[in-house]
User: What shape does this take?
Amino acid sequence: MPYQGLQLIAAVVWMFLGPIAAAQPQDKPDLLAEARRIRRLAVEEARKVGDGLDKNVLFSNIALLQARAGDFQDAFETAHSLPEPERSLALESVARAQAEKGDVAAAMTTAGAIKDVRSRADALSEAAVAQARAGDFRTAVATVKMIEDSPSSSGLRGFLLIAHFQNRAGDKAGAARTLREAAVWIILKMREGQRSDAHRRFAISSLASIASMQSRMGDARSAAETREEMRKILEEIQNPATRDSALASTVRALAASGDFVFAREIAEQMKQGGHRDSALASIAEEEARAGNLPAARGTIDTMEAPSEIARARTSVGLIQTNQGDPLGAIQTASSISDPKARAEALIALAGTFARKKQGEPAVSALAQGLEAAQIAGKEKMEPQFWRDVVGVQAWSGNVLDALQTTRRIQDEASRAWAIQFVTHKESAAGDWRLALSWAEEETSPLVRAYALLGVADGLRARLVRTNAIK
Assistant: This one.
């Protein structure tokens, strides 16, 4: 089973499995004990999995959910039982849970014990975000600056989220200052590193994100200064392919600032291929975000690669969804000619509709997405597609349909994520004993362990929802 596929489970679980439903009063006294018991069952199943990455990543996920439940001692023991890099990944999960519970000091201590540089950077970023959420912006910025990884997407994420919370709190000057500090930090980190073209490309991409946020916040002067720094770094890049990739980031920043004419001029100068299409897609997305759908469609029509065209139309459809135009979003996705890509786009929209509790468009997009998958050939659809279908069905309240789809997934990593999601939803909002029976029906120790984790975490979410536990 691919390591990356299993590693993604931790991130996906963290993002999407939140407290959902109310518990019945008579359930409260026993559910906490049941959740702990079921987590222990998951540990027993995990021990049956053959030695290797599958087992290590599974235990890393167990540590994550132990930490979410507040069982930090068990989480630390689980993490320290793992080899690297899974130990660092597990400790990162523990630090994230500590930060989300408001214990930033403990999260910082845990981060200091992480050996892997990138996992430590992720943990520090989470601590900084927790500090920013609590209003301690100065300390949050200092925490991000402790990150050693060079260059660091975690550091960039930390800075952007700090600025977001400052802006939301009404501290626009502070947010602008944080973004300027972020730009300086990115450039310094690049200079400290090997100064390879890859590092320069990452710096340009990061600066593009900063410039985009500065533009959206109305700080045109700082955005222009950031774009000028991008131009200087761009001149240092020698490799043509890397340069085109960096140019695509430049186009994205220009489009986000509303300078569509200049952005298009740069895109037109690029060689035909993926990077040029990527640049044009960025322009189309920003045109759609600005409310100019005809211009966005016209830009997409100048693209060449079918895969990039499909991606651009999917992005525009999602923007329309956020703008309150579900019918237009479905029409945009339905205009994708390739049935496989069309199916993926429609299911992506359906997921957004389902999470927004927009039942009718969710049902319509799901039906059309499955129809397109039938045309493409269901065997040609990637496991990720069926995972997304499960998510739509579960978010829409059709948990039994989600279970049936899960049981048809052949890829073990995708089936593990899907069954965990399904058992979590049923345990949090419905009959947790039924969810437990579904977990026990799984024959693979790996999949059964993830299913049991879903039940246990669903019970935890149920109790959090009713304030029975924190």
Residues 1-29 have pLDDT under 50 and may be disordered. The chain is about 75% helix and 0% strand.
